[in-house]
Amino acid sequence: MSDAPLLSVKDLRVHFPIERGVFFRKEVGRVRAVDGVSFSVPRGETLGLVGESGCGKSTTARAIIRLVKPTSGSIGFRGKDLAAIGEQEMRRDVRRHVQMIFQDPYASLDPRMTVERLVAEPLVNYGVARGAALRDRVSELLELVGLSRRHLDRYPHEFSGGQRQRIGIARALALDPELVLCDEPVSALDVSIQAQVVNLLQDLQERLGLTYLFIAHDLAVVRHISDRVAVMYLGRIVELAPSDAIYAKPSHPYTQALLSAIPIPDPALQRARRRIALEGEIPSPTKEYKGCRFYDRCPVREERCRSEDPPLAEVRPGHAVACWVAAKTA
Length: 330
Prior knowledge:
Elements: E1 5-20, E2 26-42, E3 46-50, H1 57-64, E4 72-77, E5 80-81, H2 87-94, E6 98-101, H3 115-125, H4 131-144, H5 161-172, E7 179-183, H6 191-208, E8 211-216, H7 219-225, E9 228-233, E10 236-242, H8 243-248, H9 253-260, H10 267-272, H11 303-307, E11 313-316, E12 319-321, H12 324-329
Parallel strand pairs: 3-8, 3-9, 6-7, 7-8
Antiparallel strand pairs: 1-2, 1-4, 4-5, 9-10, 10-12, 11-12
Helix pairs in contact: 3-4, 3-5, 4-5
Protein backbone atom coordinates (compact mmCIF):
# COMPACT_ATOMS: atom_id res chain seq x y z
CA MET A 1 0.00 0.00 0.00
CA SER A 2 1.48 3.39 -1.00
CA ASP A 3 1.77 6.17 1.59
CA ALA A 4 1.03 8.86 -1.02
CA PRO A 5 -2.62 9.96 -0.70
CA LEU A 6 -4.87 9.25 -3.65
CA LEU A 7 -7.39 11.75 -2.22
CA SER A 8 -6.46 14.82 -0.18
CA VAL A 9 -9.22 17.07 1.18
CA LYS A 10 -8.17 20.34 2.84
CA ASP A 11 -10.41 22.79 4.69
CA LEU A 12 -13.48 21.78 2.65
CA ARG A 13 -16.60 23.87 3.19
CA VAL A 14 -20.05 23.43 1.71
CA HIS A 15 -22.56 26.12 2.76
CA PHE A 16 -26.12 26.34 1.49
CA PRO A 17 -27.72 29.80 1.49
CA ILE A 18 -31.06 30.40 3.24
CA GLU A 19 -33.06 32.90 1.22
CA ARG A 20 -36.30 34.80 1.78
CA GLY A 21 -38.49 36.88 -0.47
CA VAL A 22 -40.60 36.18 -3.52
CA PHE A 23 -39.45 38.65 -6.16
CA PHE A 24 -36.26 39.91 -4.52
CA ARG A 25 -34.44 36.99 -2.96
CA LYS A 26 -32.25 37.90 -0.01
CA GLU A 27 -29.79 35.66 1.82
CA VAL A 28 -30.65 35.64 5.52
CA GLY A 29 -28.40 32.84 6.68
CA ARG A 30 -26.40 29.77 5.75
CA VAL A 31 -26.52 26.07 6.50
CA ARG A 32 -22.91 25.08 7.19
CA ALA A 33 -23.27 21.45 6.16
CA VAL A 34 -19.50 20.93 5.86
CA ASP A 35 -17.40 23.49 7.68
CA GLY A 36 -13.66 22.96 7.47
CA VAL A 37 -13.04 19.24 6.84
CA SER A 38 -9.53 17.93 6.13
CA PHE A 39 -8.38 14.35 5.58
CA SER A 40 -6.44 12.19 3.14
CA VAL A 41 -6.93 8.66 1.85
CA PRO A 42 -3.85 6.70 0.71
CA ARG A 43 -4.19 4.43 -2.29
CA GLY A 44 -5.70 1.05 -1.39
CA GLU A 45 -7.02 2.20 2.01
CA THR A 46 -10.56 2.39 3.37
CA LEU A 47 -11.36 5.49 5.41
CA GLY A 48 -14.59 5.21 7.37
CA LEU A 49 -16.52 8.46 7.87
CA VAL A 50 -19.03 8.20 10.71
CA GLY A 51 -21.39 10.44 12.64
CA GLU A 52 -25.07 11.02 13.37
CA SER A 53 -27.56 12.02 10.69
CA GLY A 54 -27.12 15.57 9.44
CA CYS A 55 -23.45 15.91 10.39
CA GLY A 56 -22.32 16.41 6.77
CA LYS A 57 -20.99 12.95 5.82
CA SER A 58 -22.93 12.54 2.57
CA THR A 59 -22.45 16.19 1.62
CA THR A 60 -18.69 15.68 1.92
CA ALA A 61 -18.83 12.76 -0.53
CA ARG A 62 -21.09 14.65 -2.93
CA ALA A 63 -18.72 17.62 -2.86
CA ILE A 64 -15.76 15.36 -3.70
CA ILE A 65 -17.51 14.02 -6.78
CA ARG A 66 -18.97 17.50 -7.48
CA LEU A 67 -22.63 16.60 -7.21
CA VAL A 68 -22.71 19.69 -4.99
CA LYS A 69 -20.34 22.61 -5.46
CA PRO A 70 -17.83 23.26 -2.67
CA THR A 71 -17.96 26.74 -1.14
CA SER A 72 -14.21 26.72 -0.45
CA GLY A 73 -11.28 24.41 0.20
CA SER A 74 -9.40 21.99 -2.03
CA ILE A 75 -9.94 18.38 -3.14
CA GLY A 76 -6.72 16.89 -4.50
CA PHE A 77 -7.02 13.85 -6.76
CA ARG A 78 -4.48 12.67 -9.37
CA GLY A 79 -2.79 16.06 -9.47
CA LYS A 80 -6.01 18.06 -9.89
CA ASP A 81 -8.01 20.22 -7.51
CA LEU A 82 -11.55 18.95 -8.03
CA ALA A 83 -12.96 21.99 -6.26
CA ALA A 84 -11.47 24.34 -8.87
CA ILE A 85 -11.78 22.59 -12.25
CA GLY A 86 -14.71 23.09 -14.62
CA GLU A 87 -17.56 20.65 -15.14
CA GLN A 88 -16.33 19.63 -18.61
CA GLU A 89 -12.85 18.78 -17.31
CA MET A 90 -14.40 16.99 -14.34
CA ARG A 91 -16.42 14.77 -16.65
CA ARG A 92 -13.64 14.19 -19.17
CA ASP A 93 -10.68 13.56 -16.86
CA VAL A 94 -11.99 12.67 -13.41
CA ARG A 95 -15.44 11.09 -13.17
CA ARG A 96 -14.48 7.75 -14.69
CA HIS A 97 -11.80 7.41 -11.97
CA VAL A 98 -14.11 8.39 -9.07
CA GLN A 99 -17.45 6.64 -8.71
CA MET A 100 -20.15 6.53 -6.07
CA ILE A 101 -22.37 3.83 -4.56
CA PHE A 102 -25.55 5.45 -3.28
CA GLN A 103 -27.43 4.72 -0.09
CA ASP A 104 -30.83 3.72 -1.42
CA PRO A 105 -30.78 0.94 -4.04
CA TYR A 106 -34.50 1.52 -4.62
CA ALA A 107 -34.05 5.18 -5.61
CA SER A 108 -30.69 5.04 -7.42
CA LEU A 109 -31.80 2.69 -10.22
CA ASP A 110 -34.14 3.89 -12.99
CA PRO A 111 -37.18 1.55 -12.82
CA ARG A 112 -37.73 1.90 -16.60
CA MET A 113 -34.31 0.54 -17.54
CA THR A 114 -33.19 -3.08 -17.67
CA VAL A 115 -30.15 -4.20 -15.71
CA GLU A 116 -28.18 -4.36 -18.95
CA ARG A 117 -28.94 -0.73 -19.77
CA LEU A 118 -28.28 0.43 -16.21
CA VAL A 119 -24.83 -1.13 -16.00
CA ALA A 120 -23.97 -0.34 -19.62
CA GLU A 121 -24.84 3.37 -19.37
CA PRO A 122 -21.42 4.60 -18.16
CA LEU A 123 -19.67 2.38 -20.73
CA VAL A 124 -21.80 3.88 -23.51
CA ASN A 125 -21.36 7.45 -22.25
CA TYR A 126 -17.58 7.14 -22.36
CA GLY A 127 -17.46 5.08 -25.56
CA VAL A 128 -15.70 2.17 -23.87
CA ALA A 129 -17.61 -0.66 -25.55
CA ARG A 130 -20.48 -1.34 -27.91
CA GLY A 131 -22.40 -4.25 -29.45
CA ALA A 132 -21.43 -7.75 -28.34
CA ALA A 133 -18.40 -6.45 -26.42
CA LEU A 134 -20.69 -4.19 -24.39
CA ARG A 135 -23.01 -7.05 -23.44
CA ASP A 136 -20.04 -9.24 -22.52
CA ARG A 137 -18.59 -6.50 -20.32
CA VAL A 138 -21.93 -6.01 -18.53
CA SER A 139 -22.20 -9.77 -17.98
CA GLU A 140 -18.67 -9.80 -16.58
CA LEU A 141 -19.53 -6.99 -14.15
CA LEU A 142 -22.68 -8.74 -12.95
CA GLU A 143 -20.74 -11.94 -12.29
CA LEU A 144 -18.14 -9.90 -10.40
CA VAL A 145 -20.80 -8.81 -7.89
CA GLY A 146 -22.48 -12.21 -7.56
CA LEU A 147 -25.22 -11.93 -10.21
CA SER A 148 -25.37 -13.62 -13.62
CA ARG A 149 -26.03 -13.11 -17.33
CA ARG A 150 -29.63 -14.30 -16.94
CA HIS A 151 -30.39 -11.09 -15.02
CA LEU A 152 -29.56 -8.82 -17.98
CA ASP A 153 -33.10 -8.33 -19.25
CA ARG A 154 -34.79 -7.90 -15.88
CA TYR A 155 -35.94 -4.64 -14.28
CA PRO A 156 -35.02 -3.30 -10.81
CA HIS A 157 -38.42 -4.15 -9.27
CA GLU A 158 -37.70 -7.85 -9.88
CA PHE A 159 -34.77 -7.83 -7.43
CA SER A 160 -34.37 -7.72 -3.65
CA GLY A 161 -32.69 -4.77 -1.93
CA GLY A 162 -29.38 -6.61 -1.65
CA GLN A 163 -29.44 -7.57 -5.33
CA ARG A 164 -30.25 -3.99 -6.32
CA GLN A 165 -27.27 -2.74 -4.37
CA ARG A 166 -25.09 -5.29 -6.17
CA ILE A 167 -26.33 -3.82 -9.46
CA GLY A 168 -25.38 -0.36 -8.18
CA ILE A 169 -21.91 -1.65 -7.28
CA ALA A 170 -21.51 -3.21 -10.73
CA ARG A 171 -22.45 0.11 -12.36
CA ALA A 172 -19.96 1.97 -10.16
CA LEU A 173 -17.18 -0.42 -11.19
CA ALA A 174 -17.96 -0.32 -14.92
CA LEU A 175 -15.24 2.21 -15.78
CA ASP A 176 -12.54 0.66 -13.54
CA PRO A 177 -12.41 3.52 -11.00
CA GLU A 178 -9.58 4.06 -8.54
CA LEU A 179 -11.67 5.71 -5.82
CA VAL A 180 -15.17 4.61 -4.80
CA LEU A 181 -17.30 6.77 -2.50
CA CYS A 182 -19.65 4.48 -0.58
CA ASP A 183 -22.51 6.61 0.79
CA GLU A 184 -24.09 4.39 3.47
CA PRO A 185 -24.30 1.48 0.99
CA VAL A 186 -25.77 -1.00 3.51
CA SER A 187 -27.98 1.16 5.76
CA ALA A 188 -31.14 0.46 3.72
CA LEU A 189 -30.58 -3.32 3.77
CA ASP A 190 -31.53 -6.07 6.21
CA VAL A 191 -28.82 -6.90 8.77
CA SER A 192 -28.20 -10.36 7.25
CA ILE A 193 -27.67 -8.80 3.81
CA GLN A 194 -25.44 -6.01 5.13
CA ALA A 195 -22.66 -8.47 5.97
CA GLN A 196 -22.81 -9.98 2.47
CA VAL A 197 -22.48 -6.58 0.79
CA VAL A 198 -19.65 -5.46 3.11
CA ASN A 199 -17.77 -8.73 2.43
CA LEU A 200 -18.31 -8.22 -1.30
CA LEU A 201 -16.86 -4.70 -1.10
CA GLN A 202 -13.80 -6.00 0.75
CA ASP A 203 -13.31 -8.78 -1.79
CA LEU A 204 -13.59 -6.32 -4.69
CA GLN A 205 -11.07 -4.02 -3.02
CA GLU A 206 -8.52 -6.82 -2.81
CA ARG A 207 -9.12 -8.02 -6.37
CA LEU A 208 -9.28 -4.62 -8.08
CA GLY A 209 -7.02 -2.49 -5.85
CA LEU A 210 -9.80 -0.03 -4.98
CA THR A 211 -9.67 2.85 -2.52
CA TYR A 212 -12.82 3.53 -0.47
CA LEU A 213 -14.32 6.42 1.42
CA PHE A 214 -16.92 4.47 3.38
CA ILE A 215 -19.70 6.56 4.94
CA ALA A 216 -21.95 5.07 7.61
CA HIS A 217 -23.62 5.72 10.94
CA ASP A 218 -23.29 2.06 12.02
CA LEU A 219 -20.00 1.91 13.92
CA ALA A 220 -19.92 -1.90 13.90
CA VAL A 221 -19.98 -1.97 10.09
CA VAL A 222 -17.30 0.71 9.88
CA ARG A 223 -15.02 -1.21 12.23
CA HIS A 224 -15.29 -4.30 10.04
CA ILE A 225 -14.25 -2.63 6.79
CA SER A 226 -12.16 0.46 7.64
CA ASP A 227 -8.40 0.90 8.06
CA ARG A 228 -8.91 4.34 9.64
CA VAL A 229 -11.99 6.09 11.02
CA ALA A 230 -12.91 9.77 10.95
CA VAL A 231 -15.68 10.85 13.35
CA MET A 232 -17.71 13.82 12.15
CA TYR A 233 -19.85 16.19 14.21
CA LEU A 234 -21.79 19.16 12.88
CA GLY A 235 -19.70 19.65 9.74
CA ARG A 236 -16.31 19.01 11.34
CA ILE A 237 -14.06 16.00 11.92
CA VAL A 238 -13.53 15.69 15.69
CA GLU A 239 -11.42 12.53 15.77
CA LEU A 240 -9.32 10.65 13.21
CA ALA A 241 -7.35 7.50 14.01
CA PRO A 242 -6.63 3.90 12.94
CA SER A 243 -9.72 1.75 13.36
CA ASP A 244 -8.34 -0.43 16.17
CA ALA A 245 -7.11 2.61 18.11
CA ILE A 246 -10.35 4.53 17.92
CA TYR A 247 -12.41 1.56 19.13
CA ALA A 248 -9.94 0.57 21.85
CA LYS A 249 -9.24 4.07 23.21
CA PRO A 250 -11.55 6.82 21.88
CA SER A 251 -10.38 10.28 22.95
CA HIS A 252 -13.13 12.71 22.00
CA PRO A 253 -16.21 12.77 24.30
CA TYR A 254 -18.50 12.51 21.29
CA THR A 255 -16.71 9.40 20.00
CA GLN A 256 -16.91 7.88 23.48
CA ALA A 257 -20.66 8.49 23.55
CA LEU A 258 -21.14 6.94 20.10
CA LEU A 259 -19.17 3.82 21.01
CA SER A 260 -21.02 3.41 24.32
CA ALA A 261 -24.27 3.06 22.35
CA ILE A 262 -23.09 0.00 20.35
CA PRO A 263 -24.84 -3.12 21.68
CA ILE A 264 -22.59 -5.92 23.01
CA PRO A 265 -23.82 -9.49 22.36
CA ASP A 266 -22.72 -10.64 25.84
CA PRO A 267 -25.58 -9.77 28.29
CA ALA A 268 -23.25 -9.58 31.31
CA LEU A 269 -20.87 -7.17 29.60
CA GLN A 270 -23.79 -5.14 28.27
CA ARG A 271 -25.23 -4.70 31.78
CA ALA A 272 -21.83 -3.81 33.25
CA ARG A 273 -20.85 -1.16 30.72
CA ARG A 274 -21.44 2.56 31.28
CA ARG A 275 -23.70 4.20 28.74
CA ILE A 276 -22.86 7.87 28.05
CA ALA A 277 -26.08 9.81 27.48
CA LEU A 278 -25.59 13.18 25.82
CA GLU A 279 -27.69 15.99 27.22
CA GLY A 280 -28.61 19.40 25.89
CA GLU A 281 -29.95 20.63 22.58
CA ILE A 282 -28.53 19.39 19.29
CA PRO A 283 -26.89 22.54 17.86
CA SER A 284 -27.98 24.10 14.59
CA PRO A 285 -25.83 23.99 11.43
CA THR A 286 -27.02 27.53 10.66
CA LYS A 287 -25.23 28.97 13.68
CA GLU A 288 -21.68 30.31 13.53
CA TYR A 289 -19.65 29.04 16.48
CA LYS A 290 -16.74 30.75 18.23
CA GLY A 291 -15.81 27.83 20.44
CA CYS A 292 -16.28 24.08 20.31
CA ARG A 293 -19.57 23.18 18.65
CA PHE A 294 -19.92 20.18 20.97
CA TYR A 295 -19.80 22.47 24.04
CA ASP A 296 -23.52 22.37 24.97
CA ARG A 297 -23.63 18.55 25.03
CA CYS A 298 -20.14 17.77 26.33
CA PRO A 299 -19.90 16.11 29.78
CA VAL A 300 -16.26 17.25 30.32
CA ARG A 301 -16.40 20.80 28.95
CA GLU A 302 -14.28 23.61 30.33
CA GLU A 303 -14.71 27.37 30.13
CA ARG A 304 -12.05 27.56 27.40
CA CYS A 305 -14.20 25.35 25.17
CA ARG A 306 -16.92 28.00 25.02
CA SER A 307 -14.75 30.63 23.32
CA GLU A 308 -11.87 28.76 21.63
CA ASP A 309 -12.43 26.33 18.76
CA PRO A 310 -10.09 23.33 19.23
CA PRO A 311 -8.08 22.33 16.12
CA LEU A 312 -7.80 18.73 14.93
CA ALA A 313 -4.37 17.98 16.43
CA GLU A 314 -2.36 14.78 16.85
CA VAL A 315 -2.35 13.51 20.45
CA ARG A 316 -0.69 10.18 19.67
CA PRO A 317 1.06 8.97 16.49
CA GLY A 318 -1.64 8.76 13.80
CA HIS A 319 -4.40 9.73 16.27
CA ALA A 320 -5.81 13.27 15.95
CA VAL A 321 -8.53 14.84 18.14
CA ALA A 322 -10.27 18.21 18.17
CA CYS A 323 -10.71 18.62 21.93
CA TRP A 324 -8.89 20.77 24.50
CA VAL A 325 -9.57 18.30 27.33
CA ALA A 326 -8.48 15.23 25.35
CA ALA A 327 -5.30 17.02 24.26
CA LYS A 328 -4.36 17.64 27.92
CA THR A 329 -5.06 14.08 29.12
CA ALA A 330 -3.59 12.14 26.16
